[in-house]
Amino acid sequence: MNIRYSTLILGAAAEIILAVVFFSLIPSDILTGDIRWLDFIVMSVINIIFILNVLFPFVNLDDKSHKEVAGLGIQWTATGWYAALAFLFLIGNIIYSWQSMSHPLSFGIQATIQSAILLFYIGGIVASRASMNKSQEVYSEQSAEKKGKANIKAAVTSLLATTEETPLIPADITGRIRDIAADTRYISPSSTSEASEADKAIIRDCDIIEVALRDYEMNRDMISRQLSRLEQDMKRRRNLRN
């Protein structure tokens, strides 16, 4: 049976058991009507929270950023503490009333305390979401940085391949392009606007030279000038950091 259907069935069964316990097993002189409903609702909320945690898993393995992992500890801690505090407070009042045969804390006090515990849980969930969003932001920045360097390497590699495959290209031209290709390893990933503009300039230089290589004799001077510009653009890019 699918785990989600199993979870829904177990959750429904738990609700039925809770209803039987609170409305059939616990005497009316132990729990008054309003407190009985309050306690039932609190236990139902705890039950629903755990059901949702199973139906909607914390970690999405298809998300490459794995942002849920960053908030996993906070969310589990908040869930565990809420369930424990809410249940212990609830059961403590029932036991006290049962043993002393006196009225438990008033509905207003119990509702206020249970609401405070619930707010603590909500605060934990908000904190976990903030942690997830920060993780997603960092991942996006790192992806942008890596993409810029990868694009440069792809453009220079393509240029070098064209150079080596094109006949009659002087050895010094090929050597300079090989040196540029080797220098790509020293480029640091960066997401700054200046680095982005430098990346575009390098890719543009490579595209221009690659097209011009189709007729080296005609474009000899232009290739030399553009190659010098590419070398300067590479030097400027290597000096850029975040």
Structure, described:
The protein has 242 residues and is an all-alpha fold. Helix content is 81%, strand content 0%. The protein is built from seven helices and no strands. It has helices at 3-25, 33-55, 67-100, 107-165, 171-183, 193-212, 216-238. The radius of gyration is 33 Å and the shape is rod-shaped. The model has no long low-confidence stretch (mean pLDDT 84).
User: H/E series, N to C?
Assistant: HHHHHHH
Principal-axis shape: rod-shaped
Unreliable stretches, pLDDT < 50, 5 or more residues?
none
How many β-strand runs?
0
Residues in β-strands, percent: under 5%
Number of helices in the DSSP assignment = 7
Taking all residues together, what is the mean pLDDT? 84
End-to-end separation: 52 Å
User: How large, in whole angstroms, is the Cα Rg?
Assistant: 33 Å
Computed structural class: mainly alpha
Q: What's the oligomerization state?
A: single chain
Report on the biggest sheet: none
DSSP helix fraction: over 70%
Question: Which secondary structure elements does this structure contain, and how are they paired or packed?
Answer:
Elements: H1 3-25, H2 33-55, H3 67-100, H4 107-165, H5 171-183, H6 193-212, H7 216-238
Helix pairs in contact: 1-2, 2-3, 2-4, 3-4, 4-5, 4-6, 5-7, 6-7
